[in-house]
Amino acid sequence: MKSRLYRWNNAWKLLFVFSITYLLLLPEYTLAGTPNISPNGVPPKPAFIESKEDLVDVQVIDRPTPSHPMSPQTTNVNIVELLRQLNETLLLGYLENLTAFGPRVTGTENCDQAAHYLYETFQDMGLVVRYHNYTDDVVSGSNIEATLYGSDSTDIYIICGHYDCVEAGSGADDDGSGVAAVLAAAEIMRNYEFVHTVRFVAFSGEEQGLIGSRHYAEDAYNNNESIVAVLNADMIGFAPTGSDGIKGKIYENSPSEWIVTFTQNISQVYADYIGIQLFSQGKTWGSDHYYFWEYGYDAVFYAEFNFNDYYHSGNDTIDHMNMTYATRFSRLMLATLAEMAQQSRPVLKITSISGGLGVTAQITNIGDENAQNVNAMIVITGGLYGLINISSTTKSAVINPEGSMQAKAMLFRFGKILITVTVDASNAYQTTKQAVGFLIGPVVLNVVSKT
Hints:
The protein has ten helices and 17 strands. By secondary structure, it is α+β, with helices and mostly antiparallel strands. It starts with a helix and ends with a strand.
């Protein structure tokens, strides 16, 4: 009797398993609550475009690359003070406020209301705020930009995310998580002074094809703005397992690899406050960093390690997020941004160009930091019949603040000459100065600066 009952129970179990398996294999059928699972290794992309070919081609002229800040090697107590202020409560408050508007599709009232909320929130922080409005064939909308001006620099660092989302839901992770990180960074950094200018930007039109960020990057390019680094956060709050919660992804192009190194150093130096190991992923076109690349700016895209199971669905809600993970990721970006924005730079100045036996240029570091790997080039052209074209390079490993170096070029010709001196360093901007003079044999006379 016991054996027969045992076999009967097993038969029912097999029938149940067979039935469930059959239903799951039926087209369009899923069990209630089953997430829309996406491949773990696939980065997000805008909802309404299928491939990179759907994006707008950009043609630009190469622009000078600004010097990069040096990667931190030791903990800075000022950065630790900032990190301690970024907690789950702060982040969750902004996330709840943003998702309360419901679906924020660009061009709809919900999205406009969210834009107004962001504008007023930044304004209440005491930041300089503006609507960056754009009109496009696909959709018109507004980016929201808040600025914290630097004390002694026109260099710009940007932290950004997109506040629009798809119609299916409230877009908690995509990309409420990124915008909450931007708001939290602004709330904390506004109380401190930084050497360089910081912009906190929330884009719309991302889901329609990176439209808002394209117009923003285009305007920055046309205005010749010195944007050193763009830190784009898009989906940084999903971590269903413990191992997912200690890892993150970063996407970059070749010119932006220095930001990857910088951020990875940040994650190590401030490991006690961040606890995320960052993995480089290379290029992807699917978020708002892309058009900064196209317009010649260095940018990276931060994303969660395990791609969100509820991507572009009504289940992309706060309760499916890991707020501890989102806080750690937000701290990683905050520390990276603050370290970059606070670093002083060397400033190289060509203080004089003189003649005599050859040409001598005096270069002085008038900045507050050491200039590293300095290269000074003197180019001399002109002379009788325009036959002179001579260049000479002088190098110095370091020029200390208020320190100087000399560069010299020797030649033997005759006639009026143009002297061009160009100086750069691995951590300082290039500077150029010109002068004219008259050459008799090896002696340069009547040197007069042009600039």
